[in-house]
Design a protein that fits this description.
30% strand, 2 helices
Length: 103
């Protein structure tokens, strides 16, 4: 079994790669302890996505992880060119439990 760090890294990497496949410039903000884990800039430069990624062990903890991620991502001010997102992944499950844009 991998460590919590490895699981979180894998989830962030998956998110980053999703945006890279869309042609975005995307990167992890590893070690920053800031409000976003991944930042993605759209190819036309019109929008910047700030994504808070959470990895949880069970489906029972998805809502709590979402609330925690929400509190972190809303620290980023709203602006027309900024898109704030929360992604939550359950360990061992395919896909994402939550992928939500925060207004």
């Amino acid at each position: 079994m991998s460590t919590n760090y490895q699981q979180g890294y894998a989830a962030e990497d998956n998110c980053k790669n999703y945006y890279k496949e869309l042609g975005c410039i995307a990167f992890r903000t590893a070690g920053s302890h800031g409000p976003a884990d991944v930042v993605a800039i759209e190819p036309d430069g019109k929008h910047v996505h700030f994504i808070q990624v959470k990895k949880v062990k069970t489906e029972k903890t998805v809502k709590a992880a979402y609330r925690e991620a929400f509190q972190e991502i809303v620290q980023i001010p709203r602006a027309d060119h900024i898109i704030r997102e929360v992604w939550v992944k359950v360990y061992g499950k395919r896909g994402w439990a939550i992928q939500e844009i925060i207004g």
